[in-house]
Amino acid sequence: MNTSYTFNTVNNPHPEIASIEKVIESHIGWAVNNKDIVTLFSTIVENEELFFFQTDSESTIHGIDEFKSLVDGIFMSEEFKAIRTEIHNLRIHLSPSMKTAWFSCIMDDYNEFKGEPAVWKDVRWTGVLEKIDGHWSIFQMHFSKAEDKVR
Question: What is the CATH number of domain 7-150?
Fold first, then answer.
């Protein structure tokens, strides 16, 4: 007997989860994919409700303008080179209303900045998406590193 409240990738699948997974993968993979900025911005809400914590305490993003500054200043720079991204243990949950979803995974993100490795390994990545006008958009994300992995 299935006792899940949500549709999910664990024990209660739904076809809509594939669309959510594509948005998540496109969001983190856009730079590896020739810095496809159109794809990047198609994955997020483009307003001041966009919010995410980075792995450090000083880089929290509040709104689309801060995010665009980050993208323009770092990721679109010639000094930034995306190499590959790997997502592990992706879990997606879809609300019964089928309008809200959330996810968690472990991510490895391999890049170079100014010729030096810029790698996120074993980073915990979570997020919340909303379906608006038939399209899934990320509203909130959180990136963190487990203390035992940092030591």
Answer: 3.10.450.50
